[in-house]
Input
Amino acid sequence: MAKVGQYFASLSSVLIVHNVTQESTPLELEYLDALQLALSNLSQPLKLQWINVAQIPDDDTLEWQILRTLNSSVTEGFITVLPQTQSFLHARYFATRNANVRLKDKMYLFLCEHENPQDLLSMELLQFYPHHLLVRPHRESETRRRGVEVEVEAEAATGTLPHRDINFELWTQKFVGGSGNLDAILLDAFLPNETFAKRVELFPNKLLNLERRTLRMGSITYVPYTVTNYVAAGTGNEDPINPHKPNRSISFEGSEANIMKTFCKVHNCHLRVEAYGADNWGSIYENESADGMLGDIYKQRVELAIGCIYNWYDGITETSHPISRSAVTILGPAPLPLAAWCTDILPFNQASWLLLIMTIFVCSCVLYLLRYSNYFLGEKRPQNEFNHTQNLQRSTLDIFALFIQQPSAPLTFNRFATRFFLATLLCSTITLENIYSGQLKSLLTVPFYGAPVDTIEKWAQSTWKWAAPSIIWVHTVEQSDLVTEQILASSFEVRDYNFMYNASFWPNYGLGIERISPEVVICGNYVTLAALEDRIVMRDDLYFDWTRAVSIRGWTLMEQLNRHIRTCQETGLYTHWERESVAKHLDKKIIQMLCNLMNGFVSKKAPKPLVVDDISGALFVLAFGFSIAGVVLLLELLCSGLLFMPRRRN
Output
């Protein structure tokens, strides 16, 4: 037991589960005494936690006892002294599925007396806990009933022993290899003289060399991360999960695919892949139903899934170290040219036009006063009585004519103040008219566009819809507390590729795209080069996250995969694979066009002759003026007719 205790000496905490009752056998009590002696004489203090199954209250269970213990502290070692170890394994797996954090378990020691190693070690639950050791007393009568293979192995083990009377057998599960992973392996034997028969490693590292153990993995097609498709037999680079499918009938490529392929080469495992198609991440629902690739992870049909997966179901699945930064933004419509009919009012904004109208009104009043002062200070003739209404109208018309640099009625003033006012007004209107005409000419050359919807905040205010092929695009922000993200999530739609191809030409619809780096934006093949001519990329992102590999809870190789991911990142391999996948699987012209749109590039269109729309502004002013004049003329005729009717009767 001292030898075994040395393996637990480096751990921070050990949980011992036992069942001490009046019916406990002497061997079980000896196991506990030996444990206390071995673990108390360690060079470093070790935190020991004890659970006596016999003392668990009726309203509690072993599952919840272990779960609470593991959530409250970091437990790395487990030792059991139980008549039925299977109950502990089920309770331990319950904790694996429901613990708040990933459990840092490293070693398991099962001290048994009557249990059959072939029965206990054949449990699939032990696949989650490969570093275990089963200790049980040797019984010759049971050895004869194991079969020829076990008898030969026992004879080989005892052939070189100094003593044929073996005291304890040390067993473990095979775990590695292309087949027989659940087989029980007689690892060593502990002799009465307190020595080991083979002196082998009691807790061998089974994860270092998996000896072609099958790794069942699911993947989708989502460039540049993974491109996973069924192909003709012999033309792919990986095998499918289903054994009835032909060998090498999976084509598995991409930046994240290369991580898994190199991982299997390093650890010597046999990668088998299930292809789920494009954008088929799937979902896990509250009623415990699931679909797609993530659904198969939840149902444990596959061990691992990869392909631009965010941290969507952290409480249900287990995620790896972050692989690559990924952000979601929107490919929106470019701003449209303003209507040609309003060309005449575009050179100035609303505030400028309001100021001009007020200036014309004030100048008209000043000119009217100057006219009246000129009449008042001059010679007053009874036949030339001053008409206030007529002079106010003439003043307004004369001022408007000066502002548009057009000739008006002759003005004769004998006062210096009046002449100086008109001279100053002429100088200012010349400058104003040149500014207006210059801006108007530029509008006819380079048309004005509406305000661009180029940020996520503006998009939320526009109430426009946007779409992507899967609901998973907004899973990260569906429960967000931010108003903008709530609006964007509510305006999102799941659409097929045909719909999104047509929508890419609409002036009020957006498409979800991904920003994989500050220089590269990618989109689905439903976006064409022609559609991008009238599109813009949002300057900011709706959200960003890190892609990860996702596995079933308690997957034993996650720590090894995390180290491999960091190695690929630190050596620059992943960056190389990502650029290689982008160049191989995406249209270079579309990628370059998207990059140009991010940098504010506006495509130049070929010159065209002016059409009626280009002069519709002048026509609109003319039509507006004629309409007002016609209405006023009709009113004048109506008023004059009403005035002359009484005279005709008389």
